[in-house]
Amino acid sequence: MINAVLVFNNNGQPRLTKFYTQLDTQTQQSLIAQIYRLVAQRPASACNFLPLPPLLSQGASSSASGPSDTPTQITYRTYATLSFIMISTSTESPLALIDLIQVFVEALDRMFENVCELDLIFGYETLHAVLSEMIVGGVVVETHIEKIIAGVRAQEGYLGKKKAVQAASTSLGRGALPGLGAWR
Amino acid sequence: MLATNLLKKDIVTSSIPNMLLPLITLPHIITPSLAMSLLPDILSRLSHSSPVVRKKTIVCLYRLALVYPEALKLAWPKIKDHLMDDQEDGSVTTAAINVVCELGWRRPHDFLPLAPRFFELLVDSGNNWMAIKIIKLFATLTPLEPRLTRKLLRPLTNIIQTTSAMSLLYECINGIIQGGILDGEDNLQERDEVATLCVGKLRGMILMDSDPNLKYVALLALNRIVATHPTLVSMQQDVIMDCLDDADVSIRLQALDLAVGMVSSDSLQPVVNRLLDQLQQASAPAAELVDTPQTSESPKVPTLWPNDYRTEVVHRILDLCSQKNYSEIVDFEWYVAVLVQLVGLLPPSESEDDWSHPKEQEAMPNLRMNAAFRIGTEIRNVAVRVKGVRMEATRAAESLMFVDNRSTFFPSGSTIGDGVLGPIAWVVGEYAECLLSPNRTLLSLIDISNASLPSTTLPLFLQAIPKVFVQISQTSQPGDLWKSEISLLLARVIEFLEGLAAHPDLDVQERAIEFLEVLRLAAESLTSDTQEVPFLLASVIPNLFTGLELNPVATSAQRKVVLPDSLHLEEPFSHDLPGLFRNLGDLSPHESKSWETSDFYHLPELSSPNKQTRDPAPVDLQPHASYQNFTGAPVEPPIAVQRRMLERRERFKDDPFYIAPSGESSGTSTPFHEALNTSNGEVLDIDSIPIVDLKLGDEQLSHDFDRQRSRRPPVRKLVVTGDETFETPNSLADTSRPKGGDDHPTYKRSLLQVDSSSLGNLSLANGPSPQVSADEGDREMARAMQQMEEVRLRMQRASERIQLEGTPAEGTLVKKKKKKTRKHVASDRAVGTVVEDPTEPAMGKKKKRKKKTQESEKLPGEN
Prior knowledge:
The complex is a heterodimer.
Chain A (H helix, E strand, L loop, with lengths): L1 E8 L4 E6 L5 H17 L7 E2 L3 H7 L12 E7 L2 E7 L5 H19 L4 H6 L1 H11 E2 L2 E2 L4 H25 L8 H6 L1
Helix pairs in contact in A: 3-5, 3-6, 5-6
Chain B lengths: L1 H10 L4 H14 L2 H14 L5 H17 L2 H15 L5 H15 L3 H4 L3 H10 L3 H14 L4 H17 L3 H13 L9 H21 L3 H14 L4 H5 L2 H8 L4 H14 L5 H16 L2 H4 L3 H5 L9 H20 L5 H14 L2 H9 L1 H6 L7 H15 L4 H12 L1 H7 L6 H15 L7 H8 L12 H18 L4 H21 L5 H22 L7 H11 L11 H4 L16 H7 L5 H12 L7 H6 L8 H9 L7 H15 L18 H8 L19 H14 L20 H5 L20 H4 L9 H37 L5 H18 L9 H24 L1
Helix pairs in contact in B: 1-3, 2-4, 3-4, 3-5, 4-5, 4-6, 5-6, 6-9, 8-9, 9-11, 10-11, 11-13, 12-13, 13-16, 15-16, 16-20, 17-20, 17-21, 20-24, 21-24, 21-25, 24-25, 24-27, 25-27, 27-29, 28-29, 29-30, 29-31, 29-32, 30-31, 31-32, 32-37, 35-39, 43-44
Protein name (chain B): AP-3 complex subunit delta
Keywords (chain B): Golgi apparatus, Membrane, Protein transport, Repeat, Transport
Main location (chain B): membrane
């Protein structure tokens, strides 16, 4: 299963942290910091798999072979300024996870129309909605991009009115959430 | 309760988005009691018309089952229906497969009946995501059902040959490896074909293009194959070796792992040389890199590798060479040279990190040792085990030991030396006869800079100093010149030792003082005018260090030593110990002290027949005795000893601490007891110390080595001594050693880990009769209700208590009555649960006080 989905930018500021197990904030932050340090070291040409950070490698030693509950793989992918990280157990396929990140980003791109970091900051609801369409409780439920988009739109349609009011009231630039206007 | 109800309401709402929200949220907040109360509602969602709801419900149920395994029992039939239904929406099936894949490895037996359906889905559906998951699932199923492998082989090879999706291809290969398809016995032909196909494809993945991900996972897969098909993998050596030079650290590490797995005696040397080259490049300045052939052929940028990677490489080289008791090494001289080279190549900062946390290291001794220390240990191992190159190894150690060499090997400010020098000092001392120039070595050993070495290394130095000194004194020709030389050396050694006599570390201090005193005596004996070598120097001190040859002993050997029948470790010395200790006050302090210690070490006597078979004490005990003689301790005639023993026995006859010898069969008292009592300079009753003759399986070992040698081209016949251990008939070792592993998962729980172990105990296979499950459900329900009631009561009480404290003291009495009634109600509600109530004792007291006051009121009235 997938234990956590993280998104942070090149400066290590988290943009999305989703842990599928309960974890106190302190540990969450130190884990993010450790993973960020690992990601930041790596050149662009390196492969998309990270060694386990110290926080995670404590319990992983016993799971040398066969599946278990301990998270053993960290897959990451960097797009422009953002890094997407998935921490998973060995029941997930590493290459499939890379594709999953790709699907996630493509879905975001469809929702926001040329997604960028600011979109994720201001459209965090959409970000979470997309993620929850794909992964529920650490298990992948949908990988088909059309269905993901449809699912998110169905949810947003319900909240649409509220969102529109919010968007109008915010005086922030970028005409907040341009992608959301497209479907209405 | 409110939240539960709200969630319930949301789950059964008509609006789909609203309904989905709790389904998404629940996995994050789920608790057993919440799961129990929400289960019926969530179960009903499984038959919702929208596939979106269905698929999320399935996943939600999985998380419910993790905390509340009973949920799975109820939900599984429905999930199975969805899985089997051909008309079901594809994404629902995928979700179900994903869940089954998560559950699968916990209880693979339960999913075996579904295998045909999985098979169908794998072959028919064009969904790669699902196929990957199904293959993962099959990998856990095949070990249980051997027939499955034959059926799977064809479609899997088909996929491997046809698919264009790399992830699917990789998972197929991975599934074949993990499912154990490659390591069965029957139809070998087909198996080898598949293995060849897999390895070929993996090679293609590595070679094909510059995608580092494929390289990485291919190496990962090869790493798994190498255990069963080392020859196949070693055919791909060229590719793997190229990966060793890859720009990516992750890939390099994987390749390193692989290299350790696949080397043979032929390929070992090139591999290690290559790694050494790499290390040299890494430590050399960038300007020199241009000249090396390695960089010219590959266009990669010469980056400086992080120190931890370099340390890892060093560890791996040592792993490579030392595996299987050095069976892969042909040329040990080369190995010694490599070790010396490695010392120079160690990254500087690593060892500092390690040494700055000595406590941590002690806490985890099984963790990897400091690389520097490991190199030192390797040199020592080679010196001890391989007699043929002992000379070379000692010379190498010697060269590292020289003070003037040290600055080149161990740059100032780094602490690499500390780790290496310890074992090296031991080698230098133990095999002093192999030294090239003992004089220079000794001077290096007593160099003043050594005094600042850590206290873990210094004792080894201290032990080595007299050994080397003895070597010098014995080899040189006696004469006037000799005498002055030796006394000069002695003076220097003594000066060095004097410096250490006040060392803060007790171990160092003790050894320093011991040797200091011995050597002072030696120096004194030299001052006499006689021409010949003083006895002390000629035989006494050398005898301290000559004895039996030291051999490596397996760490488990101690455990295999069979306890003598007469040794009762479990039995208490006396059954009335407390009483005895009470009587201790009567005894004089001196006596009681010696008894305690002797009792502590006391061993029951070995029965007399054993005495004949006992070996006499080895010669190395003798020097102690002679040393004591030399220092002028009075030697008593045996009759006196005998008399003393009898006296003592008489004295101790009534003493409960003294365990009298059992029976009169043996003439002497208990051996250790006597030895201890007499060891303060009186006599050493060597015969009475039990010596167990250690029968070692030498024949077996040498036989093994003969076979190994015959297989190998005879470059140079070197015998590697194996660990000494005992041949126990009833494989004691296996039973006594606790199997660290699956039986007792004692490992520390990792962060982020979802504990699904409870699922392992849950059986799904044609589930138990509904009666039982209903019963269990009822019981579970009742228990949960009880718990909830309890919590509610406690909360209620807590609020009351606050009220209680708030009210003025006068009001308590009135209040209490109210409380009592309410409490009755509460306890009625709790249906027989024992509710611990902190206010109860207080109330009881109050009641009593009230009663008392009533009584006291009454009493005066009566009076």
